[in-house]
Write a structure and sequence with these properties.
Layout (H helix, E strand, L loop, with lengths): L1 H7 L16 E4 L2 E5 L13 H6 L1
Antiparallel strand pairs: 1-2
């Protein structure tokens, strides 16, 4: 996913922050745009889904 984001936004600061509880969160400028556990059916994002949410 990091490569996917950097391919469109080469100057983006993409970092992995390890946590616990099985969550997967994508935060852009302090705003959560994707959270696995907040979905009705928890899942990881589909290919390009994060880029679509960032647009």
């Amino acid at each position: 996913m990091k490569e996917e984001i950097l391919s469109k936004y080469p100057d983006a600061n993409v970092e992995l922050v390890l946590g616990s509880g099985g969550n997967f969160i994508v935060d852009v400028d302090g705003k959560v745009i994707f959270s696995k556990v907040e979905l009705e059916r928890p899942r990881f994002p589909a290919p390009n889904e994060i880029l679509e949410l960032m647009a």
